[in-house]
Amino acid sequence: MNGNAIMYDAVNGKILTVGGAPNYQDNPATGNARIITIGAPGAVASVAQIGNMAYARAFHNSVVMPDGKVLVVGGESYPVPFSDNTATNIPELFNPATSSFTSVNPISVPRTYHSWALLLPDATIISGGGGLCGACATNHPNAQIYSPAYLFKADGSKATRPAINSVSATSVAVGSKITVTMNRAVQSFSLVRFGSGTHSVNTDQRRIPLTPTASGLTYTVTVPSDPGVALVGSWMLFAMDAAGVPSVAKTIIIRA
């Protein structure tokens, strides 16, 4: 319970599950991690255990990024609502290419029960909240922004980002093509659904990797035709260059 499940590749049915505890509270959390792969309706899903996170967590949040990596932030090693006593303040980054986790810079405010985290259109991640228990000391009516490494060069300076100049449509049906004009060459695209998180659950977020065809600086991508993959709703369209640097997203509405 109180762990996370994140669909980081909806096309291939890949879901990362991380953390949680045997009971909702008053039990030690785990650092367990698994990859669930789902296929056609009725097919048996497969579950593969991968290496654990470095830190046990419950009441944490996880956010899929444009490149398919997942940031796991906050939580506590012994879940107790409205408590920061065992807060885990070091986030971890899941890399699907290696099925492994890397610790990143710590957060300065605990994010435990009632906290949340979401991907923003500029490809940063906002993490905030926690508490909501009246006048108790664990209320955190604030937020922090995490800027992933893909926004920086190796020397720590800001990377130059590709820019989406235009898209052929901002409202498309499943199975449709989108033509994207860029300011410079890019290598890949992804659609990430706008999230809505509460109580460590964000079932709205999912990522669709897109392989483009190119003609100069004009690229064409195709929205999957399966409405169970490309759910109706609001999505962020990102373009990424050969170094993995993402653009600021364009909002795309997918309709039936």
Please, could you describe this protein's structure?
The protein has 256 residues and is mainly beta. Helix content is 0%, strand content 38%. It has no helices and 20 strands.
Short summary of the structure?
Helix content is 0%, strand content 38%. The chain is built from no helices and 20 strands.
Summarize the topology.
Blueprint: E1 4-9, E2 14-18, E3 33-37, E4 46-50, E5 61-64, E6 70-73, E7 92-95, E8 100-103, E9 115-119, E10 125-129, E11 143-146, E12 164-167, E13 171-173, E14 177-182, E15 188-193, E16 207-210, E17 213-215, E18 218-222, E19 233-240, E20 250-255
List keywords for this structure.
mainly beta; four-stranded antiparallel β-sheet; 256 residues; globular; 0% helix
Structural class: mainly beta
Distance between the termini: 33 Å
Largest sheet: 5 strands, mixed
Tell the overall outline: globular
- Average pLDDT works out at 96
Number of strands: 20
Number of helices: 0
pLDDT < 50 runs, ≥5 residues: none
State the helical fraction. under 10%
Radius of gyration: 19 Å
Q: Helix-strand pattern, N to C?
A: EEEEEEEEEEEEEEEEEEEE
Strand neighbour order, sheet with most strands: 13-20-19-15-16
Strand residue percentage: 35-45%
